[in-house]
Model the fold of this input.
Amino acid sequence: MNPLSISDGAVFGPVRIWLRAEGFAVVALSVLLYRISGWSWWIFLALLLTPDLSMLPYLISPKVGGASYNIVHSYFLPLVLATVAVALGRAGMLPCLYIWMAHIGLDRLLGYGLKYPTAFGRTHLGNLANGPGRLVKEAGR
Done:
């Protein structure tokens, strides 16, 4: 078996590098759009970690916590809400969505991926037991 391959469902090699680079691009664009919005940087800093409140359901179970975390840490909801805001002429909510997107992008850049329902540390970017985005070596390899 290829020494880079893993059996826990995490991406590796160039795919992982591209996903982390994509995270950087999302952070950069979100910060630029937030700057253009003219909102206070104190608000940005105060709200940047708010999406991590979605981890609280891990107190119930890894399955419920993983689902909650993945819903909030997916690009889908903020992009849908941004589309609705623009379509309805409600651009005032866009800076909050930029903060949300920046958070998700930063997580991806740092190697924190979407969670599998088995444990908090099992993500699509690697197993957090070895640190963010690092792969766990298979036993005996």
About this structure: The mean pLDDT is 87. The first helix runs from residue 13 to 37.
